[in-house]
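Progress against Task 2.4 (sequence-to-structure conversion) is shown through the following example record, which the project officer requested during the mid-term review.
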Amino acid sequence: MDGLINVDDYIGVYANDEIELNNKLYDECCKEPINFAAVEELLKAGADPLGGTEANGWHLLDHIYGELVCGSQDNNSIDLPKITELFLKYGMNVDKPRIPYDDANSINPAWDFGFVTNENAIIALKMLLDCGLSADSFGLFWDHVLTDFFHIECGDPQNDAFWNYECVWSLKMMLLGASYDHILKNDKWLQKFLCCDYNTFDIKKFRNWDNFDYYFDTSHCVKHPDFYKSIVHIYEKETGKEVWIIGVGNSGRKLLGLN
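Structure tokens generated for the chain above:
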């Protein structure tokens, strides 16, 4: 959704007893360890994973699931798959919140996945994709990832372990989404970034993300003041063969003959 929504327009969308349930749901999901039986009872009672935690004001525009996705980075998203499984079981549809998303204050939880590029997060993301997460929502995720990790502050993924980890998991999550027909066919910019016109390997195989190794080559690319442009080589573990190659940034794409 473009533009900002007016929070006052949505006062009363949630009754006070619903807000109370939402707060209890959020609190239960923030506990360590989480009592998942208690979480499930709150969901049965009508707590909304995409709901806010106040009846008015800015917290009305919060989406509990998005807040939990963001907070999950503190413990490597260990509980995110189970939380996601339960929320989906009781009807959560990330594409259809009761209060619509906007560009700043009511944020689609798919965008929040850009903060948590790790194995538990990719498991949760697959659950959303299996339930039909839209190309528009997935696009918010990968655009966030691309902005944060490749265009603003990305270090040297070839030689720096932290940035290698972040970039590998970012790409695994992007390729996971691209392995779903409805995502890739409806997102020409994702096709372009992943160099789909250049590669011939069956992209659906990237749904099994553990089957591949990633190697970053920055040796032939121009170093931008803010980030490394790179060639990403992806190898199939079983065969040892290179199966996919991505040019990151203009210099990387030119080396593939794409610009």
